[in-house]
């Protein structure tokens, strides 16, 4: 083989090797080495703001509400009237004293014998040995026929057989029947005695 042919052969061999080398390099460049995957991080939940702490409850126990006591029922006052009897010239005159301090103090003096006389053509009047208690009573009043009264200025028990207007010192105590017998009677000495109580008041 001549030197020219031999040189060409070497040139071709070198070209083939160069081409192969270039192809290998290109292949390597075209197929880059795999890169390690990025580490996967687990998404974290976004932190929500902390709820405010509940206020501490007082340690002292709260008393349970108790029912209000039922109002007491007020019983109506029971009045006790007292019957009395007055003898008028042999005639028995029945009367009723209404419950009061004055009536009670009169009853405390009974029985009595009193000297009655007529006054003003309207009443029979007799002085009592002791004055009556007038607590809680008005200082004056009037009287209808048949009224048992007390006239404070004279310390006297009075049987009214005619109507009398309002006067200071007249204290009505109760009432009596037999008005005509009292009207027609002259001055007399009469026995005054207490009778039975009338619970609930006189009818």
- SS class: alpha+beta
Helix and strand element order: HEEHEEEEEEEHE
- The largest beta-sheet arranges its strands as 1-2-9-6-7-4-3-10
The main sheet comes to: 8 strands, antiparallel, barrel
* Beta content: 25-35%
State the main characteristics.
alpha+beta, disordered N terminus, Cyclophilin
Short description:
The protein is built from three helices and ten strands. With 203 residues, it is of the alpha+beta class.
Characterization of the model:
- The structure is a single chain.
- The protein is an alpha+beta fold.
- The protein has a domain at 80-198: Cyclophilin, CATH 2.40.100.20.
- Helix content is 20%, strand content 33%.
- The protein is built from 3 helices and 10 strands.
- The strands form 2 sheets. Strands 1-2-9-6-7-4-3-10 form an 8-stranded antiparallel β-barrel. Strands 5-8 form a two-stranded antiparallel ribbon.
- The longest helix is centred in the first third of the chain and has 28 residues, at 3-30.
- Residues 1-11, 18-34 and 36-49 have low confidence and may be disordered.
Describe the secondary-structure layout:
Layout: H1 3-30, E1 80-88, E2 91-97, H2 101-107, E3 112-119, E4 123-127, E5 140-143, E6 147-151, E7 156-160, E8 164-168, E9 170-176, H3 179-184, E10 188-199
Antiparallel strand pairs: 1-2, 1-10, 2-9, 3-4, 3-10, 4-7, 5-8, 6-7, 6-9
């Amino acid at each position: 083989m001549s030197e020219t042919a031999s040189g060409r052969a070497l040139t071709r061999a070198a070209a083939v090797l160069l081409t192969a080398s270039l192809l290998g390099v290109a292949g390597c460049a075209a197929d880059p080495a795999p890169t390690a995957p990025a580490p996967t991080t687990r998404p974290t939940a976004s932190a929500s703001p902390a709820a405010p702490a509940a206020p501490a409850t007082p340690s002292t126990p709260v008393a349970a509400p108790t029912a209000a006591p039922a109002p007491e029922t007020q019983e109506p006052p029971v009045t006790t009237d007292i019957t009395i009897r007055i003898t008028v010239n042999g005639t028995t005159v029945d009367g009723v004293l209404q419950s009061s301090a004055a009536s009670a103090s009169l009853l405390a003096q009974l029985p009595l014998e009193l000297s009655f006389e007529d006054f003003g053509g309207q009443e029979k009047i007799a002085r009592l040995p002791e004055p009556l208690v007038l607590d809680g009573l008005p200082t004056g009043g009037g009287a209808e026929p048949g009224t048992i009264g007390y006239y404070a200025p004279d310390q006297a028990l009075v049987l009214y057989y005619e109507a009398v207007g309002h006067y200071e010192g007249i204290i009505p105590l109760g009432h009596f029947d037999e008005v005509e017998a009292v009207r027609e009677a002259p001055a007399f000495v009469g026995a005054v005695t207490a009778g039975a109580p009338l619970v609930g008041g006189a009818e």
